[in-house]
Amino acid sequence: MKSQFVILIFSMLLTIAYGQDTSVNVNTLIAPELSILPVIDGDLSDAAWADVPEVKVNGSGDDPAPTAAGDLDVTMKVAWDDETNALYFAFTVIDDVFINTAGRGSSVSGDGWRNERMELIINGLNTGNASHGEDSEFHTQYTFDLPNTIDDAPIGLADVPVSAQFISAPVLEAIDGGLTPPAFPFDLDDAYVESAAMIRVTDANASEWLEAPVEWTWEIKLVVFDEQFSNSVVGLDVNDAAHIANGFKAFFEDPIQVVHDLEANQVIGISPQQNDADAFGTPPDRQHQVNTTNRAGNWNSSAELTGLILGPKTTDVADWPIR
Fold first, then answer.
1. How many CA atoms lie within 13 A of 11 on its CB side?
2. Is pTM, for the whole model, over 0.85?
């Protein structure tokens, strides 16, 4: 009976939601509305996540999908909240070789996509377009990096004791694409983007983070905007201490940036992408990328997205997969 109820509700939501143009969606996923809000600390045992369905992120992107279990296993939970007007994401990542020597804060390279970066492409209007510029009504790409494994603290993991228990790890947040400079370093205002991570080694004999088998989490709260971010704030200096201290709040609150009002039955275009490097190099390079769409893409080329349908508050969602 429960299965029939789930199918009926899913069909009703698709009928309502598909009043929008969903031609850009290669698949769909229902996100329940949260009854209680999670604390964004990387700990996914929070009761808020208990009744949110978990799906595998196993489509291949720019690089081939992993070929064996444990090479790169990623699961995702996604939900939304009307009061905070935000999407909430919870990812668990299992990786047999942790190579995180490039990326935000690294002295080696700024190309975090070559390593273990999480990329979240969000298209509030679900209007994917393969060719667009800074003023396109398309999407924003948010990037999330763990501290790299070679630099000194407080930026790197190099001086952080290796642990077989989950420990908190800082997350370096940025917006990529359509900006000059191309990304804000490293921490965005929590009212708009809030994230946390926890990490542990899965081999008790591991003596350092570099090349260790690991498991980690991403926990993310994200306010959606209708248009791709552009560098619209006149005179906004991304290196200015005041802007850095307040997480570039003026940028988010510039009138040209239109906050999307989340409502039940809307379709939000998303493409979460987890990157993976398996071999150390200078710079290292990505071997795998997994996502929900089975399509390659980044901030300026993702024409096909997962349609995230904003569903109701309910606990009867455990059987709702990506369809």
1. 6
2. yes
